């Protein structure tokens, strides 16, 4: 009996000790989980530095290029974490794509866009923000590019942390401007170019929001508010998909493939027209077949917009990879060229290994840190369904075409997020309009108190103000950080 009591006490003690070990393991896993993403990102950044070392070999400027490659990899990670959310957020928020599916599609198409059509040439110092001749030495130019690259990456990292989608191109522009001022004074900055970029802060979201709201109004008036929704959808959904196909064909011809084939705006519009008509004709029997047996309600309409929405998100990612990656790795390419030849003027050739760092960095950043911003854009600003998300994606392509035709500078980030705002604010306006009409028809219905009406707003004002504030301060914040980093780098290197 005593032996049994001893064994029971021994087993009880053992179970208690094992329980402590299980709790310790669970606590360790819980603490370590947030470190997995930064750990993988750190490994990628280190590998980017070794890649630069392998491609360049031993030379007097190898260390500088390795440091630039590290900064460029860090920037690419932040682009994936922040900028790509604008393309995938609406599709995820509308439940047309799962988070895993969105990340997989974006990673493939962003990388393809960067590597296939990412451009072999980018204008020195990010679209002429700073006059190269104003910077006296190649060393000062290299320090300026390093400061611009690191400051823009830090700013995008901070914006991702607070949950604000910002323009990575504007961050690079701010970084280049700040470093240029620190190295050569205010006269080094091309202020007319800066003025057009500042104008895009207002033009991009307003134009994107207006176009998205216009398409949502069209869908509501022509399809959703009709007595026979399915019959109306059979007529108008092929038209809308044809418009999307035409817009994206023109968009990709004009923007995404401009480095492979030189295409004018008129040629791009003709390509878009041909593609739009062809897809419209092809979609008529497809939509007719998909709509068979569907109930006459709004939920049934979501089926018809699901696949076009996924395709549009993939095409947006391809075009984004083709355009914004080159801007992000431009300062890195400039450092590589200046370190090799000492030249700081003209156009900068982007080596393939630099584009690979940009493409893979975006994919890793999206996979490791992208879900936060994807959820923000897709579901936390306003509620999206496939029709509303489709309007956002369509607006992004149409707005770029309209802006190119008018010669206006625009930001793809501001367009996409502005389109989400436009859809949300249009829904608020439409709900108020219908409420007023119902009150006229049914005056006995109670009037909502102002507090209740405020609670029912369809756009979350806190996120709206956070994002707008981040947009406004992006260029000056990146510029200030860049100037401070330039002085620090010069002090260390000098």
From TrEMBL:
Pfam families: PHO4 (PF01384). This is Phosphate transporter. It is found in: Membrane. PANTHER family: PHOSPHATE TRANSPORTER. It comes from the Bacteria. The chain crosses the membrane at residues 35-56, 63-81, 140-160, 172-191, 197-219, 231-254, 260-282, 303-322, 350-369, 389-406, 464-489. The keyword Transport applies. Belongs to the inorganic phosphate transporter (PiT) (TC 2.A.20) family. The lineage of its organism: Bacteria, Pseudomonadati, Pseudomonadota, Alphaproteobacteria, Rhodobacterales. It comes from Albidovulum sediminis. It is a multi-pass membrane protein. Its main location: membrane. Keywords: Membrane, Phosphate transport, Transmembrane, Transmembrane helix, Transport.
């Amino acid at each position: 009996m005593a032996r049994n009591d001893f064994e029971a006490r021994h087993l009880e003690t053992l179970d208690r000790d094992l329980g402590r070990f299980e709790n310790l393991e669970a606590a360790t896993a819980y603490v370590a989980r947030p470190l997995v993403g930064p750990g993988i990102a750190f490994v990628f950044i280190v590998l980017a530095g070794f890649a630069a070392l392998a491609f360049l070999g031993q030379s007097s400027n190898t260390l500088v290029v390795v440091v630039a490659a590290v900064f460029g990899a860090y920037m690419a990670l932040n682009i994936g974490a922040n900028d790509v959310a604008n393309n995938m957020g609406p599709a995820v928020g509308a439940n047309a794509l799962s988070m895993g599916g969105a990340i997989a599609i974006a990673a493939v198409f962003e990388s393809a866009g960067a590597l296939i059509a990412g451009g072999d040439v980018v204008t020195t110092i990010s679209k002429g923000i700073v006059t190269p001749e104003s910077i006296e030495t190649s060393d000062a130019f290299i320090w300026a590019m390093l400061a611009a690259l690191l400051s823009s990456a830090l700013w995008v990292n901070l914006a991702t942390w607070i949950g604000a989608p910002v323009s990575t191109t504007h961050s690079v522009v701010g970084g280049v401007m700040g470093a240029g001022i620190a190295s050569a004074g205010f006269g080094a900055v091309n202020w007319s170019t800066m003025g057009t970029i500042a104008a895009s802060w207002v033009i991009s979201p307003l134009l994107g929001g207006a176009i998205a709201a216009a398409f949502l109004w069209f869908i509501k008036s022509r399809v959703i508010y009709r007595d026979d929704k399915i019959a109306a959808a059979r007529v108008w959904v092929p038209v809308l998909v044809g418009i999307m196909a035409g817009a994206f064909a023109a968009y990709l011809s004009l923007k995404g493939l401009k480095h492979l084939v030189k295409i004018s705006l008129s040629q791009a519009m003709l390509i878009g027209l041909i593609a739009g008509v062809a897809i419209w004709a092809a979609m008529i029997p497809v939509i007719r077949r998909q709509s068979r047996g569907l109930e006459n309600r709004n939920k049934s309409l979501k089926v018809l917009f699901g696949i076009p929405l996924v395709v549009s998100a993939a095409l947006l990612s391809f075009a984004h990879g083709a355009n914004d990656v080159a801007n992000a790795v431009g300062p890195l390419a400039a450092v590589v060229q200046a370190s090799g030849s000492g030249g700081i003027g003209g156009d900068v050739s982007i080596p393939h290994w630099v584009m690979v760092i940009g493409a893979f960095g975006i994919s890793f950043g999206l996979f490791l840190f992208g879900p936060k911003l994807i959820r923000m854009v897709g579901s936390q600003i306003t509620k999206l369904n496939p029709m509303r998300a489709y309007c956002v994606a369509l607006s992004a392509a149409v707005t770029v075409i309209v802006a190119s035709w008018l010669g206006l500078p625009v930001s793809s980030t501001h367009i996409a997020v502005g389109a989400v705002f436009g859809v949300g604010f249009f829904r608020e306006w439409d709900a108020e309009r219908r409420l007023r009409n119902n009150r006229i028809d049914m005056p006995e219905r109670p009037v909502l108190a102002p507090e209740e009406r405020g609670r029912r707003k369809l756009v979350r004002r806190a996120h709206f103000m956070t994002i707008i504030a981040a947009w406004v301060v992006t260029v000056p914040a990146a510029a200030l950080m860049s100037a401070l980093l330039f002085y620090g780098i010069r002090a260390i290197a000098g």
